[in-house]
Write a structure and sequence with these properties.
The complex is a heterodimer of chains A (320) and B (141). By secondary structure, chain A is α/β, with parallel strands linked by helices. In chain A, α4 runs parallel beside α5. In chain B, α3 runs antiparallel to α4. Helix content of chain B is 37%, strand content 21%. Chain B folds into 2 domains: 66 residues, Ribosomal protein L11/L12, N-terminal domain (Ribosomal protein L11, N-terminal domain, 2-Layer Sandwich); 65 residues, Ribosomal protein L11/L12, C-terminal domain (Arc Repressor Mutant, subunit A, Orthogonal Bundle), CATH 1.10.10. The chains are: A alpha/beta (320), B alpha+beta (141). Chain B: Forms part of the ribosomal stalk which helps the ribosome interact with GTP-bound translation factors.
């Protein structure tokens, strides 16, 4: 799954952003934040406080003797000179009460941040056999290892999140005894589970996500791994009104607890007699709600697994 | 030994609506954080608070791993609600746009106490009053 509204971002249509930044003393942070939130995209404001710490990282403390940087971002196309003037004027007035620095306006492009973090992204073992490798890294697989090449772009599922690891290991176990299985991936995100399923021996995989950006990302990643001919992916969800109203040997859904509960009837209906369901993305405190929802659908609980405070669940439907 | 911290970033964003767009993308991307991992975690943990601004303080470590804690809504947000106004004054020194009572300030200070760097309630009240003045909100009494 991708975040809501990601598609609305002006950057996705190729337009630029402006970063508005000002350095202020601690007392002025709240009013400047309030001003920036009024104009900033998604009401968002970034506040970076200077800090001190010991060489070993111990004793982290905010350094209140230095100014705080407050920043917001606006779509360049949406903001005229008069808005910038209004912000400058408000800062000037505030500057008569508190110490407020000069407003800086810097053009920014999505590429500036969309790719910055990739430099730190390494091949990572996600399940028992599956290793996810970013396209810009080389990895020599060991015996029995399956390598998924994945460019996550802006869609969820880079393999480093506990929920992806739980979904992957649960799916690996269910596929191990079912060569050629049919698989349905609900909320596919970057397509990591769907593609891994095919590389692990599934016969055919169908996948859905409500976000078009995820569907695009999954198609690209499937082609990259040479499995596009056995993977169908469409915008939509699980259930009889979704794009794939069939029943499958293995169904995987790595979303979040609230959505898993809402989708329970449709997701459960996609599990064929004798088939398995792997659920992930469940924070521990919400596990009971998810279990109630899926047990109410007539599925038999098989096992649970946990990493940190994230839980994975496996269910099976009795053979017809 | 504690892990070395690379950045200490506070984001003020609407609950459940984190996306890789600004401000989160640029704020975290520059520090090497996998942006979508943060968005998923934040949205999961704040989905019950939809409609509110829920600030979050993110600690990014040198290995690019991160932790975060969510905070109480900002004092300015609470003051706006208490005063029944949409925004603060453009010129807070001369133009007052609303008034709140000492009791309202006290309520906000009590709610915010754990997140403010104030030693006691009296200190927190002074900070909230300061924020109110900066927004052109008068404190009665």
């Amino acid at each position: 799954m991708t975040a809501p509204d990601a598609e609305d971002a002006p950057a996705s249509s190729g337009e630029g952003w402006l970063e508005l930044a000002v350095e202020v003393d601690a007392e002025a942070v709240e009013p400047v934040t309030e001003l920036f939130a009024r104009h900033g995209y998604n009401e968002g404001v970034v506040i970076e406080e200077p800090f001190t710490q010991d060489g070993d990282g111990d004793n982290l403390a905010v350094d209140s003797s230095r100014p705080v940087a407050v920043r917001t971002f606006v779509a360049a196309a949406d903001v005229g000179d008069e808005t910038l003037e209004a912000i400058r004027s408000a800062l000037w007035h505030l500057g008569r009460l508190r110490r407020v620095g000069e407003l800086t306006v810097t053009p920014r492009r999505e590429e500036d941040w969309a790719n910055a973090w990739k430099a730190h992204y390494r091949p990572v073992r996600v399940g028992r056999r599956v290793v996810v490798r970013p396209p810009w890294q080389v990895y020599e697989p060991g015996a029995g290892e399956v390598v998924v090449e994945l460019d996550p772009g802006m869609a969820f599922g880079t393999g480093t999140h506990p929920s992806t690891r739980l979904g992957m290991s649960g799916m690996e176990d269910e596929l191990a005894t079912r060569p050629g299985a049919t698989v349905f991936d609900v909320g596919t995100g970057s397509g990591v589970l769907a593609i891994a399923a095919l590389l692990l021996g599934a016969g055919r995989v169908d996948a859905v996500d409500i976000e078009p950006v995820a569907v695009r990302s999954t198609r690209e990643n499937a082609a990259r791994n040479g499995v596009a001919d056995r993977l169908r992916v469409e915008v939509g969800s699980a259930g009889s009104d979704g794009p794939f109203p069939s029943a499958y040997d293995v169904v995987v859904a790595n979303i979040i607890a609230r959505v898993l509960v809402d989708l329970a009837p449709g997701v459960a209906a996609a599990v064929a007699p004798g088939g398995s369901l792997v659920l992930s993305g469940i924070i521990e405190s919400r596990e009971p709600a998810v279990r109630r929802a899926y047990e109410a659908e007539g599925l038999g609980f098989v096992r649970r697994d946990q990493i940190d405070d994230w839980v994975g669940l496996v269910y099976r439907r009795a053979a017809g | 030994m504690a892990k070395r911290v690379r950045a200490y970033v506070k984001l003020q964003i609407p609950a459940g609506k984190a996306t890789p767009a600004p401000p989160i993308g640029p704020a975290l991307g520059q520090h090497g954080v996998a942006i979508m991992n943060f968005c998923k975690e934040y949205n999961e943990r704040t989905s019950a608070m939809a409609g509110q601004i829920v600030p979050v303080v993110i600690t990014v470590y040198e290995d690019r791993s991160f932790t975060f804690v969510t905070k109480t809504p900002p004092a300015a947000d609470l003051l706006r609600r208490a005063a029944g106004i949409d925004k603060g004054s453009a010129n807070p020194r001369t133009t007052k746009v609303a008034q709140v009572s000492g009791d309202q300030i006290r309520e906000i200070a009590e709610l915010k106490l754990k997140d403010l760097n104030a030693v006691d309630l009296a200190g927190a009240i002074k900070q909230v009053e300061g924020t109110a003045r900066s927004m052109g909100i008068e404190v009665a009494g």
